[in-house]
Write a structure and sequence with these properties.
- The complex is a heterodimer of chains A (224) and B (390).
- Chain A has 224 residues and is an all-alpha fold.
- Chain A has 10 helices and no strands.
- Chain B has 2 domains: 221 residues, P-loop containing nucleotide triphosphate hydrolases (Rossmann fold, 3-Layer(aba) Sandwich), CATH 3.40.50.300; 156 residues, OB fold (Dihydrolipoamide Acetyltransferase, E2P) (Beta Barrel), CATH 2.40.50.140.
- The chains are: A mainly alpha (224), B alpha+beta (390).
């Protein structure tokens, strides 16, 4: 196996990990907000966040290109700052994050909502602020669900093809991730390479699934 | 001094309360489930914001809608015992108890936790998790977690509803011990009047978001203000009557439903009265046992049914009508919803010569002692001439 064949795997893992990290930072506050607010628009916000789950990846990629591209104000601003977004690793990270974050937010929200509200009330009357409660009561009681959401998000980001391809192309060494590499290999008629790459992906995916199952079972056991 | 004047619109009714409590007193809020009593506690604790009103505990104003003051729950320093204890499952017993002490120094925290663990007999459980200790132990840990913060006001929300009756008795004693050593004020919410009676010196009966009577234990039980309170406090025999005659201390009341005239205390000036008498205060005697002189309000009747209890029996009695015609006349019977007139509780007279159980169809003598009759004006909703007011 050539080094160049492992490059897409490395890029894929790096992309998925970075996207998951962003997802955690952005998604957890959103999940907390959705889980606790009485705000009437919360289900609308939840639906908006979930759109990437139902849209075809290419459609999502198209809109991301429109929003982040050179003709949009975001794109222009990024260009002026010297960090263009489309057809770069940055763009790929944004694409993978947008595609996969609904999986995390949905799972984390239900885990956070699963923490009994009287525990939160008890912490409040015992003198803890909402932020303190989030870290000392919500997270310790919901972390397994949150972790399961992260694994799901990671798996989705790892496997993304359409959106990443639309937004960042398949630049070798920068944005050529595993799914795109497999596609390229098949297109070039190199079935042996495609086969090897596919096997690596299957192995990685299996690992992720086992991890999800272990976590889920522990979450289930806690509930009893 | 605790002052409460709050209103809040709820789904089915609006909650409206106005209570003043002196420091160190204990109040029970009693009422059917869904009457707004738990909501009241949550508003005092700051977990729910009222629509309007004023809450002051000691010298601190917790809430004042006219000044737009709202002190959040975490700053109120109020002790709250939750219905299902709300212990943190991810923390040990010890960590649970110390949860409210995070602003104190480590040394102080350890000392306080240690002393409360001794006091509430939790020793040996410190490192266990709440899921793995019994219900009674969980209750004690929850109590310790609250008391360790030295609250001035202690709120108990149905604290015993999840315990079986054996443990309940023990825990009640524990709470009474706590109350006796606790210098602050205590408010208990419960649907059980017995619990309220045992634990608190004053009782507020709530219904549909309003306090319908506030009084001492004795007042609530023996001088109900209206039919709802009387019903809730276990006054099973409630009837309407019309005053026919007044002379000094007593008056005569005609009770149409029972078809008897009754001697009652002449305390209320209204003519349309309702009265109630608790089953344990009706005196029921075997018919063959006759007194030397017949006391007032003595009527003969017949046992319809009996229910045994551990220390006595509940008997259902039908009074003998003066005019037998009305008894045989089915029309008057068919309007009635039940086949008995009175319900009485007859305690066993252990060791006495006349100890004998009542059997259905036995004849008996029922005596309404004048001092045991609770009176209140008939409810306005049932006034006889509603048209006259328009």
């Amino acid at each position: 196996m050539m080094i160049s064949e492992l490059m897409p795997l490395y890029l894929s893992l790096r992309l998925a990990l970075t996207a998951t990290l962003f997802g955690l930072l952005v998604g957890l506050p959103i999940a907390w907000f959705l889980g606790h607010t009485q705000w009437k628009g919360r289900e609308v916000l939840d639906s908006l966040i979930s759109i990437p789950m139902v849209l075809p990846p290419t459609v999502l990629g198209y809109y991301l290109l429109v929003i982040l591209g050179r003709n949009s104000w975001i794109g222009k601003l990024a260009e002026r700052l010297g960090t263009p977004l489309v057809f770069t690793a940055r763009g790929a990270i944004i694409a993978a994050t947008v595609v996969s974050i609904p999986f995390f937010i949905k799972t984390a929200r239900s885990a956070i909502e699963g923490v009994p509200s009287n525990l939160l009330d008890a912490a409040r009357v015992l003198g803890r602020t909402e932020l303190n409660i989030f870290f000392n009561v919500v997270i310790p009681n919901a972390w397994k669900g949150i972790a399961a959401g992260l694994v799901l998000m990671f798996a989705r980001a790892l496997g993304d093809f359409g959106t990443t391809l639309m937004v960042s192309g398949g630049i070798p060494g920068e944005t050529l991730t595993m799914p795109i590499a497999i596609y390229n290999a098949m297109l070039a008629g190199d079935q042996a390479t495609a086969n090897r790459l596919a096997m690596i992906m299957v192995g990685t995916a299996l690992l992720v699934l086992v991890l999800i199952n272990v976590l889920n079972r522990q979450v289930g056991r806690r509930g009893k | 001094m605790i002052e409460l004047r709050i209103s809040k619109a709820l789904e089915l009714f609006s909650l409206q309360l106005d209570i003043k409590l002196s420091e160190g007193s204990s109040l029970a809020l009693v009422g059917p489930s869904g009457c707004g009593k738990s909501m009241t506690l949550r508003m005092i604790a700051g977990l729910v914001q009222p629509d309007e009103g004023y809450i002051k505990v000691g010298d601190t104003v917790f809430y004042d809608s006219s000044e737009r003051t709202f002190v959040p729950a975490y700053k109120r320093h109020v002790g709250f015992l939750f219905q299902n204890y709300a212990l943190f499952p991810h923390l040990t017993v010890e960590q649970n108890i110390a949860f409210g002490l995070n602003h104190r120094s480590k040394r102080e925290r350890q000392e306080k936790v240690h002393s409360i663990i001794e006091r509430l007999r939790i020793k040996g459980l410190e490192k266990r998790y709440p899921q793995y200790i019994s219900g009674g132990q969980q209750q004690r840990v929850a109590l310790a977690r609250t008391l360790v913060t030295d609250p001035e006001l202690l709120l108990l929300d149905e604290p015993f509803s999840a315990l079986d009756s054996q443990v309940k008795k023990k825990m009640e004693k524990e709470v009474i011990d706590v109350r006796n050593t606790f210098s602050g004020t205590m408010i208990l919410v419960t649907h059980s009047l017995e619990e309220a009676f045992r634990l608190c010196s004053s009782i507020a009966v709530m219904d549909n978001g309003n306090i319908i009577q506030l009084g001492t234990q004795d007042e609530i039980i023996h001088q109900p203000d209206n039919r709802t309170v009387a019903r809730l406090t276990g006054t099973e025999n409630i009837f309407d009557g019309i005053v026919t005659e007044r002379n000094g201390e007593t008056a005569r009341l005609w009770v149409e439903e029972l078809h008897v005239p009754l001697t009652i205390p002449n305390t209320l000036k209204q003519d349309n009265l309702s009265f109630g008498i608790r089953p344990a205060q009706l005196i029921v005697e075997q018919n063959h046992y006759t007194r030397v002189e017949d006391p007032e309000n003595s009527f003969s009747g017949r046992i319809v049914q009996t229910i045994p209890t551990p220390d006595g029996q509940i008997v259902f009695i039908q009074l003998a009508r003066d005019d037998l015609a009305s008894l045989s006349n089915n029309s008057s019977l068919s309007h009635r919803q039940r086949d008995y007139d009175l319900q009485a509780y007859v305690p066993f007279k252990y060791g006495k010569s006349d100890h004998r159980l009542f059997q259905p169809r036995d004849f008996c003598k029922v005596i309404f002692s004048v001092s045991a009759i609770a009176l209140w004006p008939q409810d306005n909703a049932k006034a006889h001439k509603p048209v006259a007011q328009q």
